[in-house]
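Lab meeting notes turned into a lecture example. A postdoc, R.K., suggested we walk through two folding results consecutively so the class can see how the record format repeats. The first protein's sequence and structure tokens come next.
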Amino acid sequence: MADKPARPGAAGWVPTDPSWDSLWSAAQTCRGCELFADATQAVMGTGNRHAVLMLLGEQPGDQEDREGLPFVGPAGRLLAKALEQANIDPETVYRTNAVKHFRFTGTRGKRRIHRSPDLAHMRACAPWLEAEMDLVAPTGVVLLGATAGKAVFGSEFRVTKARGTVLDWPTTGPGNPDWALATVHPSAILRGEDREAQFAELVEDLTTARRTLAA
């Protein structure tokens, strides 16, 4: 029987009073779960550091892991297009992921094959997201996909049930947003059959988020 992976959680690596630079540097030393061992680096969020809207995805992908930035691959480009069509300036949002290290299984050519993180990885990585929340202090968060939803609301969360609905943030405290809105992850659209319809639904959900901010 294989040994259970060590997952002490990231809290011991998060600076007590972090700045942006110290948060990024500390994340590179994180050993909160086993995912650090195979990833190139920890990928923290980027974007407007005073954003009222945060976009929360799952984890970095192959390209993000190599470049050290979230949403720089095909899914990120699709997301930027959807933001523009929803009349949200991509430069005004903050993008990050629930899990900061890339989890993968095997390769296809030179590309490593994504594997979704477990709930244990989300829990281990939660202190990094909480630290980002404290620094950004967004009003609302768009949850991109099931992993992001589960990281915030727990294992029972289902995108299919919650999609497009403005939900109260489950906890209160400094830096915590007021609400969250779930939608699909752009990568799911890229894998889907009816991309045009799914893209239109993503734009509609982002438009809902924009209107909620303006209300």
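The second example is placed directly after the first for contrast:
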Amino acid sequence: MALLTRKRVLLIKEETEYGMDSSPTPAENCLDVRNLKIAGAGDLLERDLMRNTLSTLTPKLGKRWYDISFDCELKGSGTKGTAGKLGDLFEACGFSETVSAGSSVVYKPQSDTFKSVTIYAYDIPDSGENALVRKLLGVRGSLRIVAEAGQICRLEFTGKGKYADPTDDAIPTGMTYETTIPPIVESSVFTLNNVSLIAQSINLDMANTLVDEDDISGAAGIKAFLITGRKPAGTFNPEAVLVATYNFWADWIAATSRALSMVIGTTAGNKITITAPALSIDNLGEGDRNGIITRDIPFHLAQSTGDDEVQFKFE
């Protein structure tokens, strides 16, 4: 019997109280993912004691947790004003969710009242009645968006969850996955300071700071995983243009903040608009794309009024 990479099921559901199992179900909480990796991680405590020998003692394991990462497709629910299954993931990465029925769902970073999720991960064998199950509670993390011309825009998630011993359980049945087909990154409207630019890719990393809240009373010495900061940044690679078209150098030298906007998709319920009010250029690199000069531009995102460095609007 072998556990197969392709036969894995991931369930994710928002918790009503941090670290309390929200009991996600196959019928309601399946999420399509790729490149799923779950690692048992911990602090190895060396017992470096002095004795009459150079031999070492067996170390002990101190704090322990799960590290988890995966990719998923950036897409809407298919219905305007209805949150998709990515909603719980955005909230576990420090975003607020604002639902306008029949119109839109908006995600913006926030600075308090952070949500968390429970994740069940099933590793299913090629035969047999049971699967290996890992249940991660109190999961929080950070996300990165990667949009490349002609590809499906992907969301890359990394996070931490409380450790619990894996178990063998019945193979899940009745999985219901979101049927929305993700939009391709094509015919996208991409602008900086309202100037249309020709770019092959853009990526945006929220770069949340995720820390352990140590607690001598907590299981494995950890009370919770906290988001204590963020430094959203990214890169894009527009074709080089004349100064008259766009003066990147002036923006860079003056650290001038500019508004970024990108629209992916056109179908109602599956259209995503990404906006950032204050993008500043870190430096101006140079590249070559099929004989065309490009600018490789790393950037940072800052606030306009606060908790608005970036916005994801699904409509």
